[in-house]
Amino acid sequence: MKKDRHQKPTRSTRTRLIIMFLTLTVCMFGLVLRLGWLQVIRGEEFQQMARRQQTSDITITPSRGTIYDRNGKELVLSASTNAVYASPGEIINKKETANRLANLLEIDEGELLDRFNNETARVITLKRWVDRSIGKEIEKIGFRGIWITDDHKRHYPYGNFASYILGHTNADNDGVAGIELRYDKHLSGIPGRWIKTVDRDGRQLSSSMEVYHPSEEGLGIVLTIDEVIQHITEKALGSAMEIHNPKRAMAVVMNVKTGEILAMAAKPDYDPNNPREPWSEEEEETLSSMTSEEQLDYWYSMWRNPLINDTYEPGSTFKAITAAAALEEGAASLDSEYYSDGYINVGGPPIRSWRYYDPFGHQTFSEAYRNSDNPVYVEMLQALGGEAFYEYIEGFGFFDLTGIDLPGETGSIIPSLDQVQPKGPEVFTRDLATMSFGQSFNTTPLQILTAYAAAVNDGILMEPQIVKELLDTEGNIVEEVKPRKVRQVISAKTSEIIRQISEEAMRLGNSQAYVPGYGVGGKTGTAQKLIDGHYPAGVVIGSFVGAAPMDDPEIAVITIVDEPRGGTLYGNTTAAPIAGEIFAETFRYLGIEPSYTEDEMDKIEEEEGIEVPNILNKTLKEAKALLSDSELDYLVVNEIFVEDESLVIESRPAPGEKVEKNSTINIHIERREQDEELLMPNLEGMSVQEVKRILNAMGLQLKVQGEGRAVNQDVLPGTAVVKETVILVEFR
Amino acid sequence: MIKKNATDLTIVFAVASLVAIGIIMVFSASYTYSLVQYNDGLHYLKRMAMWTVLGSIGMFMASKIKYIVWKRWSKFILIVSIVALLLLFTPLGITVKGATRWLGAGPIRVMPSEIAKLAIIIFLAASIENKGKGIKKFFTGILPYMVLGGIFFYLINKQPDFSTAVVVVAIMVTMIFIGGMKVSHFIFLAGSVTAGMVFMLYQLVFVAERANYRTDRLMTFIDPWAYAQGDGYQIIQSLYALGAGGILGKGLGKSVQKHLYLPEPQNDFIFSVIGEELGFVGGLVVMLLFMLLIWKGVKIAMNAPDLFSSLVATGIVAMISVQVIINIAVTTSSMPVTGMPLPFISYGGSSLLIFMAAMGILINISKYCDFTKGGAK
After folding, report:
1. pTM, whole model, 2 decimals?
2. ipTM higher than 0.85?
């Protein structure tokens, strides 16, 4: 018995043990194959999926470049905001998180919850351009699965101001119109990326790979626009809109010698901060009933810059060009004399003078220009000949784009010489005849202005220029745009005659564009509008083009009032007054002293002007009161945000000078000290003491979380911070 | 008198290697987790080190105690282990995360189910040897073991600890099979265990309160991504870890998945961390070490001096191999998820102590083996 129990394992036991061993070996071998399959064959795939889960890849939007006026005033800024992201898988209590975030972000709670539950992406964008204070608050609550990053929102501090120059951006910060579109590449900078390995809760792993490509800020753009002149122009257009109730009113102010655009505006305009808001409430209604395609069309037409994207029939303003061509070719001279019967026959219906009922009769060259007598200009063109006329149309640049640095510039629509003169130079046609006074063809307003500027600028055609410089973030000039001469079109001598007749036309014509003391010269025009193939009565475009001072022109101005509906239609009653206001205020702002003719001096002494009160070193509030007592207007020209307590440091005209009633006094106020921009240092790895010392030195506040070494800071290294900002630093 | 063999150094080497890998990997895997959980990155390492010391002492002593001693005490050991399991239902039981698996006072905690595994091995080996040819009978031979197995299964599953209960049953079936049961009985036994399992699953799937949850859990391993938000999550994390490791691994300590992505990376999913940090090669080394132990154990069982020692060796091999296979199968998404520690490597004091003690017993048995060719008569 005992022996039996202590026997060694039997053969059967051993066989069964071998079966067991083989079974186990097969199982283990199977698992080795499985492991190899997972790690070697599918390893790459899993690794990528793992990396997607383990890394948080955040795009850092670069700050879009600032757009300045020629004096360095910021016209467009990028406001520092936050973007809020969520990683739905990591949110613990989705319902509660949605509930609390809904209030902070002003998003519907149900919508948030829906996104948390249904979106499969690891990171979803909840809201961009969140106010920093709200971002701070969200960070403070510290929701799991919710992140905050820096974000930049385009901000146009002046609202509608200069919107056709500046343009605007879309939600992705891409330029859609204006300079924003044209210089999008320069402005937008290079986005940065922040790739870090994180644990399941989104905490960065200390030991792991981290890639930080800082974003590169966009370049700054300095425009040739002068903010004050732009203001003056927009103000003048605004009052014209009220008086004449036109479809549109627009103007461009240009430096004659350099071609630099100093102001460019059209009314009504739009607010780049809110570019989809329609022009009126009525239109808002029609807009909401449109299809999305029609809506887009509406918006794009609203964003069109009519001064370069649209054409019109220039009308009599073009007589300056016809006159210049005739003078240069010897077809006319200052001594030429004409006789007008009030109409001229060139086949078809007779071409009438605007004062056909009381013909001008005998006129000198200069008088005919001032009278804007169509028959004389037809005669002049007959003497000049179509071919020569077309050479000058080309010479003044009407067959080319002006080359201005704005998107979508359109060219003129001018019939070819063969079209207007189908039977050759021997047969003068009515079509060609009407061109002498600017009808039967279309140009952009800017083309007329540049051509006119060339006519008074000793015949030198300049390329209009709107961008002056590109700046890097430190303010160094990266690229400078130099004025560009296109060609000499007419001789300086001819130009001098144009200046003389232009000035006489305004002065002797008692034009409202004429500003005593500044020698304004120009030409007005009233062009009938071609609508559906004919010219309906009373539908006109009133315009003015001119420059001043005519002894040595500084600035050229074009003003256009499209379809005035306020009782008066003519260019000299609708467009010229706008130009007059722009000239007067611009010269006063530029500090150019008026030089009066003797007649003018007498007139001024008669009128006895108002003395500018002493407002220097007074607060703005006191100055306002003093000026309003003297029945004077004011304009703060060197600051965007004015405060009543700011001191007045300069006044133009100076105190004691005499000005007309209701004149505008340009005021400079003391500039407020700009908040110095600081760049956030990288605090990682520093002790609490070190961090405290550094932030103190920078004037920043510190909020400590945890202890040990700094591992996290709520403001990313390299971002701009303002003094006194509270920086939350996490230590571990 | 039979000449004693020297201590089997291969076993010592394999165990020492596995335990060393265990300590290193537990430390690496648990650092973040324990930092978050206990605010002490060394929490698990310290305890693991303590249990390794205890385990080594246990292994050394067990290798010195003549295996026959265990046979003499087998009934007593069985009763002690049943009492320990019953004590869990008294206030002495410690509940962690809803499961009452520990008995303890102060810092020392013991898992009665770990003791039960070794106790049942010793008792069954002694009992089968005593039965002799009686094992071939059904009612007097096998049925009592089925009742005993049912009691153990019930007590352990009640904690609940389904995985360990399954391991105990698997050990018993293997030992009875090796012990000489009839093949027809084996088929019956295996069939009734399978039927029992099916019944259990039926209970879980259709009767249990969270029915849907369980169904999901059973199916996730086939397509974990279909349940990515629920149960599939753990499996996906394990697959990511293994995939990220590739052939050679990311290097020791470089696992990303252990940073809270893997649940309990120091325990049930430590093999995933090994796969990520040491790669396919590292995983293969671990599996080879286990194969070495299994092979050694089978060899000892085949050449044991008597049936008792042969069956003890068999039981120990079964205990190790069932746990290794289930653990690796779960981490490689080859079977439904169930919590199963990896012997020697996963964190767990009682488990390590029992396994090392079992290795000591195996070493002791090997001293009395006759490894000469044709040892069997």
Report:
1. 0.61
2. yes
